[in-house]
Design a protein that fits this description.
Layout (H helix, E strand, L loop, with lengths): L1 E6 L10 H7 L8 H9 L5 E6 L7 H6 L2 E5 L5 H13 L3 E5 L1 H5 L1 H7 L3 E3 L3 H13 L5 E3 L26 E3 L2 E2 L10 H5 L4 E2 L2 H13 L4 E5 L8 H17 L4 E4 L14
Parallel strand pairs: 1-2, 1-3, 3-4, 4-5, 5-6, 7-10, 10-11
Antiparallel strand pairs: 8-9
Helix pairs in contact: 9-10
Length: 267
Amino acid sequence: MKVLLLYPKFPQSFWSYDRFMKIAGLKSVIPPLGIITVAALLPKDWEIRFCDRNVNSETEADWAWCDLVILSAMLVQKPDFQALIQKAIQLGKQVAVGGPYPTSVPQDALEAGAHFLILDEGEMTVPKFLEALDQGKTQGIFRSLDKPDVTQSPMPRFDLLQRESYLMMAIQFSRGCPFNCEFCDIISLYGRKPRTKSPEQTLAELQTLYNLGWRGSLFIVDDNFIGNQRNVKHFLRELVIWMRQHNYPFTFMTEASVNLAEDDELL
């Protein structure tokens, strides 16, 4: 199977930092961690090409080459997301979509013509999609009420990225948040019980980025990094050791709830 993974363009906004990116000679702030994790869930014998359209556009040769197009998107990427689905349909390609936008509003993807909707968390639903392909099915919607054990999540395919085009690299330690804020849909997507990777697993991701030559800023993309305070402390204690051993190659950014300030050790 020849598969083209595409990440749609973001429209110009405050969050795209267009002027700063141009001044810095960069293309995008952070890479799309979700779709390169999906890439790691695909069969090893599949041929994969990946384009983050915020960094570089796919070519017509890429479109001609592929059998299947896989897209992931957030709601703000809707215009390019739908345009890519429509182009794929016109070219006679099978289209599979996933990510926060299709998971929250699957009807939009269906109306745009997507054949397969791989919704919720990929560790649970990508295998269902692959099984359907093996059975010769040409369409389907794959969902899961169960949440995956993220200690079983694969190493993201950082090697697929044009790393020099990004301001930061990205990793994920946890999913979910214990709070119930009215402005946030994270608990709808990932639940209120934060699930974390193991310290060894997360450090292996850092080591992979280090081995690939990355130095500088790294965004831990968790929606609440300290949702599971016990586990995050275990990780941070190991991270301190790793950083010292590697002469502090990274600086870190993340998002955390303000109750972090109640814990002296975390603070």
